[in-house]
Amino acid sequence: MKRNYASELKKGHEGIVIKKLNSPYLLGTESPIATQNWRKIK
User: Fold this and answer.
1) Is 2 part of a structural domain of the chain?
2) What is the DSSP pairing of strand 38-41 with strand 16-19?
3) What is the pTM of this model?
């Protein structure tokens, strides 16, 4: 994960999102809803 994170930062992205494989994709009005199964790492 550290290697992927560093690679994405070098590309100019602010971080990565990790999630459990079986977690549902829940949409809010403007973006996906953050749950205990999804984490954004910046």
Assistant:
1) no
2) antiparallel
3) 0.61
